[in-house]
Amino acid sequence: MEQIHWVRRRWQQLVAADSGRGQYSAPTALPTKSSPVLHNTQLLTGKRRTVIARHGRHQQEYHSISKGCQGNSIRTTKYSLLSFIPMNLFQQFHRVANLYFLFLVMLNWIPVVEAFQKEITMIPLVVVLIVIAIKDALEDYRRYRFDQKVNNNIVTVYSG
Questions:
Q1: Separation of alpha carbons 38 and 27, rounded Å
Q2: In which band, very low, low, confident or very high, does the pLDDT at 133 lie, cut at 50, 70 and 90?
Q3: Is 20 in contact with 14 (CB distance < 8 Å)?
Q4: How many CB atoms lie within 10 A of CB 79?
Q5: pLDDT digits (tens, 9 = 90+) for 82-102
Q6: Is 0.90 surpassed by the pTM of this model?
Q7: Domain residue spans of the chain
Q8: What angle do CA 23, 29, 30 make, to 5 degrees?
Q9: Which stretches are transmembrane (predicted)?
Q10: Nearest to 45 by CA among 14, 89, 82
Q11: What gap in Å lies between CA 139 and CA 82, rounded to an integer?
Q12: I want to staple 24 with a disulfide (CB 3.0 to 4.6 A). Which of 7, 44, 79, 139 is the partner?
């Protein structure tokens, strides 16, 4: 029952949001509950894209349009090889606990307030950062493999 209320509330939030991204006209054959008018205009979130067949009759049209465009492959990974360490550290230090341990490490480098050896206070922070980085790397690699699987699927293309 809670799921139904959650779905209803989420749907109301999506319908109420006037983001102005794109518009969608409902088919004339399907009337909606909200209005008896058949041409109901609703907001559609997200980007629109045009897919043109690469092979077959439309090959010339594809080459003329796709010169300045990227491919339509899916990429859901967060990181690249170059951006993994900086972005991961940036995301990890948004957590309050990691900032607390970093503050303790920095405070321990001041000789007046030094409580332990400098290296000992760094161990918990370094271990947590390494474990979370390994977890994020494995998760991102799984996303990469799934993206490759989806992008290499064979599909049927309808061309007019």
A1: 8
A2: very high
A3: no
A4: 19
A5: 999 999 999 999 999 899 989
A6: no
A7: 81-152
A8: 70
A9: 97-116, 122-138
A10: 14
A11: 17
A12: 44
